[in-house]
Amino acid sequence: MQPRNMSMSGAVDLSAVKAAAEAKQKAERARSQRAAQPGGQQAAAATRLVIDVDEAGFEQEVLQRSAEVPVVIDFWAEWCEPCKQLSPILERLAEAYAGRFVLAKIDVDQNQMLFQQFGVQGIPAVFAVIAGQALPLFQGAAPEPQVRQVLDQLIQAAEERFGIVGAPVDPEQAAAAGEEAAGPPQPPANPTLAAAHAALDGGDLAGAIQAYENVLADEPGNLEASIGLGQARLLKRVQEADPAKVRKAAADKPTDVAAQLAAADLDLVGGHVEDAFGRLVSLVQRTAGEDRDAARVRLLELFEVVGPDDPRVISSRAALSRALF
């Protein structure tokens, strides 16, 4: 999915920290103190760039730290397949940006209060906190180039608005830390799968679809390829759609299968997962024959995009079974 909801104006003020002006002054004092210490900026190399945060440590690890460096929050869960795609990208970029931001990982199953406080609608969801202000960045898995673009905007805004530039880590030490975190060498990735990902990231949807299909021809159970194929097909379907026309057609023709399928695609791309699933389950209930089968197949395809372990998929599968039987 493409990043959504990037907005530097929709900040939610978190009252646990002081105003932005004071945060800026605090950041300037902290940078001066670090520069005066033996080793200067190299002392920042000890900063943890990826941290696990819970409710008890949120104020210190996120709110207080956000006065000195942008903190990017990754809301995730163990059962969330899209999270397993996005989290490694964010962790890799935290190392690559070498201290320009800190990544805070929050397990939503263990931290429901934070999940509710931020108004998270679905996961993965990515927020940032700068000088105590929470900013929604995007929801859903996204390719690395688009995540980089969002991070670059975030870092620029942090510097221009609050004077917060982070604490760049010594490149050699950051590289060593990255190698240590990576662990032992991994076996080479499937080159066809890698080519499929590259095509998807580059916007070559037809090429991505073909490459994912090639992977699945050899490995029918490859979950990563199945999810990628579903994403590529979905993006290709909505690529040239006029959202206003699609919405109007769906509203005017509630029994038109093609119109409802197109609207469900837009629902999902827009992050309205429950709406997309509910629309198609309802379509299955009120159709028969080929129309019902078309709605059922599209719903199963969207299940693959979101991930089989997502609770919204699980509940919608049950609703689909009730509609069919």
Automatic annotation (TrEMBL):
It holds the Pfam family TPR_20. This is Tetratricopeptide repeat protein. Residues 37-156 form the Thioredoxin domain. The lineage of its organism: Bacteria, Bacillati, Actinomycetota, Actinomycetes, Kitasatosporales. It comes from Streptomyces hainanensis. Signal peptide: none annotated. GO terms for biological process: cell redox homeostasis; response to stress. SUPFAM superfamilies: Thioredoxin-like. It comes from the Bacteria.
